[in-house]
């Protein structure tokens, strides 16, 4: 098991009326196969704690959507996994958690990169037409009384910060350094990202699902525009209208279409 350091962040308690939980503690892992794997192992072993976050300096087998590998230069980027206890949130509303976490990453990145930051459905963060961050949420379910209980959610985020060159496997990446010309303290930014996660988690916990969906729509990449999507081997053009409460992408051309996560891929020129 890797050596770790617990980072105490006093400014998370700057508002005594608010109980901050996400990012306390923030554990720094010098090297790990995957922060999501590390966090999920704690959940399986019964050692998980809501809000515990794990930041890796190096990740050797990072995971992305559709089983893809997430590659990142050691120490240059945010590699972060957060343990969330969904509580009373039913599993069929899992997209609300996905949307809330996407909004946290979107707001965080937008704070430095500006208004050209968007959320590409379902939960990539784009700056212009280039990918700045990816999010992967993995869930653990338990069975009680014959019913599936949403026990834990592991929210993994990879955010390009100081990396200036990318492997050829990345088609359209961008980092905060490339956008701003500045170098950043990556670990400090990971703490800031946890604060944004806490903000949107509190909104979700307070039952503000409609506000979350509204904010998600306002931040959507290419909303109201014609895009190319690929389903199986077929590429087609359609107009992005938004998302449903269940997380389906809603588009329209000759008819209204609804696509589940993983059913279609974006085709970007």
UniProtKB/TrEMBL annotation:
Keywords: Ligase. InterPro entries: aa-tRNA-synth_II/BPL/LPL, Biotin_CoA_COase_ligase, BPL_LPL_catalytic. Signal peptide: none annotated. CDD domains: BPL. It comes from the Bacteria. SUPFAM superfamilies: Class II aaRS and biotin synthetases (SSF55681). GO terms for cellular component: cytoplasm. This is BirA family biotin operon repressor/biotin-[acetyl-CoA-carboxylase] ligase. It comes from Pseudobacter ginsenosidimutans. The lineage of its organism: Bacteria, Pseudomonadati, Bacteroidota, Chitinophagia, Chitinophagales.
